[in-house]
Amino acid sequence: MTTDPSPTPAPSADEVVLRPRFWVPLGVLLLAAASLALRPLWGGALWLALATGLMGLFLLLQTALLRLRFAPEALLVSRRDTVIRRFPYDAWIGWRVWWPALPVLFYFREEKSVHLLPMLFDATALREQLVQRLPPTFGEPPPPDPASRDLA
Which end of the chain is more exposed for a tag (fewer CB within 10 A), N or C? Predict the structure, then answer.
């Protein structure tokens, strides 16, 4: 893992930039609004709504500004055209997308650190790129093949 705050050129043909996905931040903002319904029952509901709303706004801003880029040798986190973090694939130990039916969190582990990211990008494209760029021993087990089910 290295930090490289220098501007980088636009993604090349062998890089994939994941599209942003606003569902998680909007869901957090919806939870903040829904927690206001608890005000008659609990005096702390306003503080809960405020904290949750601030987190939702922060995630919304991050979704608009940050991009994940899959380069041939590393996963890059960039803000506009500036790479702010680089995660070389050869340092990865494993990865997982939590709650695959409704992906909310992306976890990956490097040799020296663990990372947990909210799902602010296209989860399907993320899985495809991870499977393509990392050996099969990494990550989630493959989904069951419907053709291999025993229907007897």
Answer: C
